[in-house]
Specification:
There is one protein chain. By secondary structure, the protein is mainly beta. The protein is built from no helices and 11 strands. The strands form 2 sheets. Strands 2, 4, 5, 6, 9, 10 and 11 form a 7-stranded mixed β-sheet that branches. It has a 4-stranded antiparallel β-sheet with strand order 1-3-8-7, with no helix packed on it. The chain is globular, with a radius of gyration of 13 Å. The model has no long low-confidence stretch (mean pLDDT 95).
């Protein structure tokens, strides 16, 4: 059974930083593309950043230069370092794991329970 457990969310002032973690179990970690998505109230869930088993990354334009995704294959864990946070970054952040061959649709993978990030102005 796949489990993705996020941690690290919280309340921070604009300009501050947070680091999210997502620990995965029940999957062959290196075969999965891992990603962070977020959903703000009244909005659709959107991609924040993704990282392949080999370490290739892609980011939403809105977070480029501020957020960094990384993975530790030995610990089956991914991270999202978020710097220069803005109020518009406020959302529930979800971890996603999807097998490489199904990468075209993250909903074919697994989701964590989400962690709230709130950025105050």
């Amino acid at each position: 059974q796949v489990q993705l457990v996020e941690s690290g969310g919280g309340l921070v002032q604009a300009g501050g930083s947070l680091r999210l973690s997502c620990a995965a179990s029940g999957i062959i970690f290196s075969f999965n593309i891992m990603g962070w998505y977020r959903q703000a109230p009244g909005k659709q869930r959107e991609l924040v950043a993704r990282i392949t088993g080999g370490g290739s990354t892609n980011y939403a334009d809105s977070v480029k230069g501020r957020f960094t995704i990384s993975r530790d294959n030995a610990k089956n864990t991914i991270y999202l370092q978020m710097n220069s946070l803005k109020p518009e970054d406020t959302a529930v952040y979800y971890c996603n794991a999807v097998h490489t061959v199904l990468a075209h649709d993250p909903n074919l993978g697994s989701w964590g329970q989400g962690t709230q990030v709130t950025v105050s102005s």
